[in-house]
## 1
Amino acid sequence: MTVQHIETIPSVPGNHNLQSYESAYRSFRWEEAEKHFTWHRTGKCNMAYEAIDRHAEGALANKVALIYEDDDRKESYTFEQLSKLSNRFGNMLKGLGIGQGERIFFFMPRTPEVYVGIMGTLKIGAIVGPLFEAFMESAVTDRLSDAEAVAIVTTSKLKHRIPRDRLPHLKHVIIVDEQTEWQPGEVDFHVAMAQSSEELDITWVDREHPLILHYTSGSTGKPKGVLHVHGAMVQHYLTGKWVLDLRDDDIYWCTADPGWVTGTSYGIFAPWLNGATNLVRGGRFSPERWYRTIQDHKVTVWYSAPTAFRMLMAAGDETVDAYDLSSLRHILSVGEPLNPEVIRWGMKVYGRRIHDTWWMTETGAHMIVNFPAMDIRPGSMGKPLPGIEAAIIDDRGNLLPPNRLGNLAIRTGWPSMMRAIWNNPSKYEEYFRLSGWYVSGDSAYMDEDGYFWFQGRVDDVINTSGERVGPFEVESKLVEHPAVAEAGVIGKPDPIRGEIIKAFIALREGYAETSELLEEIRVFVRNGLSAHAAPREIEVLGKLPKTRSGKIMRRVLKAQELGLPTGDLSTIDD
Ligand code: PRX
């Protein structure tokens, strides 16, 4: 591969928290960073203590920890207030007989109750399971039953997607809003909070104690529960400091929902471990409302995603000009490749660089990033964090030289690494099949100066608007529709969303292709899984390409869709 780096955007000199990447990378040891936390003295820790109570007990007690706004609510909470509220929530759970290690899910819009509830859950050593509010019944059921969740925090509107009769472990449904009729097992959040004490003895846990379970998609099988531990805090803290570059006077806004790992690691843990004021905006995306949020709250550090930046770009430069965005000091992006074009546009309209960051649900925190004090090569994800060894390896685990495409891999054993796939040890081991390495499933190369460049997924996982969708889950839902005999699902490149979901289906005997039927099938997937998993395009084929063992050959479908060579067809059925 010949590689040309024509473009570099130098760092603006300034007082960055990490001034020299090279020297930090050479001398860094995790043990040093760990001294910041209680376990260094006591052998025990708790994420919620370090994120909230430590500040509530100290100089930051009256500092605003959470600013919340949506179109109806505008609220703010200090560290001290959050500490007391999360104590109440922890006591509420205890009162329900819930204890260490049990799974509490959150299935609701990102209002302050979610943040209070997550912290309260962690305080008693229970495990948090966040879910997107967009999930429909079968997506919710799969996750709750795999995790054997005992309680869920939700709203009166969403609770209908939780089939209690199919979830024998689920004992409590905590409802955060008003409703007139209460079913057995339902708990009124506001009443129970008022009845619970604001004093709580926090449960001190080992650093390997489970913290949070994030469900994410792979190319085969149902979503997998990625389990993280309290000890991840050291990396959340450090990346908040070095990558987000958080300072005392920052107003930090991460646009991600806590249903996604970005919305927890960087929407909750990293900012609060650093004592920053964390802004949360509920409601839907709109360029005007987003810019107004930055303007009104004087947001200084802004973490978002390529899809959002592309939509903002499409909204036109006049929209930017209508707002005062001069408070912005640092902008970051995650989730999919950040187009060089978007970075150039960001320089023009925001006068700032957008810093790409690469990591995954499984890695728990940043791995490869563009630091504020580093030159950016637009299109590159940057360089590995101090303490992280990233490499490009072949399928047998051999290191590849610069500029050769291969598997992006990380040397095992960083603090925020997942510790298990829930109920599925063999899935977990697949990631570590090449001895000493975590194999990401992404393909990339490293240039001669150590910058990493993302090229694509090795498997069939689809990344649509930054969200990972497993083709198998969509295919399984498609074939549940009476008209669908078989289905193959691929990601098709799209200028705004990165990829869209395209489904190829074969119809059962007796069904004819009509636009009404295709729309019905699309709605069927949307209502069964979620809007983001519903195929935007459906094409009917007489027959799908399959291997002799009966596996749908998605790569053949994709090649045909893109007009590319289909590659090796030796295993195809006919
Ligand atoms: O393919 C990579 C892509 O998103 C995948 C991880 O998705 P998820 O677990 O949902 O977490 C995303 C946020 C942590 C990766 O395997 N991805 C993530 N960041 C980037 C990216 N692709 C290119 N550039 C990135 N910066």
Note: Residues 216, 261-262, 334-337, 356-361, 381, 440-442, 454, 457, 463, 468 surround adenosine-5'-monophosphate-propyl ester (CB under 6 Å).
## 2
Amino acid sequence: MKEERVWRGHVVVVPYPSQGHINPLLQFAKRLASKGVQATVATTHYTVNTIYAPNVSVEAISDGYDEGGHGHASDTGAYLKAFKTFGSKTLSQLIRKFETSDSPVTCVVYDSFLPWALDVAIQHGVYGAAFFTNSATVSSLLYRIHHGLLTLPVKVEDMPLCIPGLHKLGYPDLPSFLKAPDSYPAYLAMTLSQYSNLHQAHWILGNTFDDLELQFPAAEGECEVWKGTMIGPMIPSAYLDGRIEDDRGYGASLWKPLDHKCKKWLELKPAGSVVYVSFGSMVVLTPKQMEEIAWGLRGSDYHFLWVVKESEHGKLPEGFIEATEEKGLVVTWCQQLELLAHEAIGCFVTHCGWNSTLEALCLGVPMVGVPKFADQFTNAKFIEDVWGVGVRAKEEDNNGTVRREELQFCLREVMDGERSQEMKKNAAKWKELAKNAVSEGGSSDNNINEFVAQVCTGNK
Ligand code: UDP
């Protein structure tokens, strides 16, 4: 009798090659591997060597800029076009390579910024799953625009925005490209392209969890929101459980972390006494904003650890590094998870990128939100008003700069102001809820198990 094939499932995970996208998708690949699925991460030549993932294979595909990545493209539009052309071809070759092996590919999990990867999956007759790295709220807004339920630009008169099932949003809470779409044509086109072929995806996965963003279930038929399966937070469980075995974070770093310097410095600081400051991997601050943050931190009562990327160093005010002495440490990159998990950190001044927001929430660190671009404004709204784990710094009306006095006021509020205890209590509550969601029997874990079961049967 012919032996029936046992499907273990082989998932190829394709991230957009930036830090905020590689991190959650790599983590998902590792999570799948821990559940017995064979996982391969297919990423660009430029990023392939930045990944450390013992239980996952890593393979290179091409974006057409194999030497230098998107930094070498003339603009975002040109980069995306090249990635689609070269990425489709090389992803297809990769799937074909596995066809004759013991473990043919059964599913492509692709970053929703790369919808062409779904077309490749369909051509090869394997499952396609879109992985959204934004919040469900932002994905819902974009979904509504794509379906003509929301017209651009969204105006002050349209406020508040009440979407069934979601928290009410005011004008300052909207992603920047909804208010000024003409200022961000390529970015807007990319975010809307996520929906171009989404009806063909077998799953829509979201890096969030059930309790986090949905206010109440929308009535059947009234549901005009993005319908994803929540599988987050995609943060290494060792950090959620507080049993960190190594200091590699997600296991991917596009820049060299200066962790030893940070750790040594932090060891000498009392618990909850340090402000950690980072604007993520993409934000470019104006010189004026850098100056205000620098002197705001220097003039505050707190120790601070500030990540200033090498490309931003020239904007630091003259004499600032020397003037910080024992009080502050400026580094070019760090292992953020490691820092947020350190007991010396009492507050995170963040640009409110979705990963940074989730990381602080999951590790119980209260935040001061200084959003600058895209979805960061919406995330800041949740930090302050929905989860009660921080405050959003107010900008000067005319140029969007947060002044030093405002930063210092926010730091006092979060570190030891009247509402500080409440924020810390809420942060501890969300930490627990996040951990529950991904632990055995939690909502996200159950959703991942269902996904795995289907991928492993191989039946569409
Ligand atoms: N990050 C890091 N070290 C740093 C700053 C950031 O490891 O010094 C990581 C951070 O943990 C997060 C990612 O980079 O996972 C940034 O993603 P996010 O969505 O917060 O912002 P983006 O960089 O996409 O704007």
Note: The two ends are 25 Å apart (CA to CA).
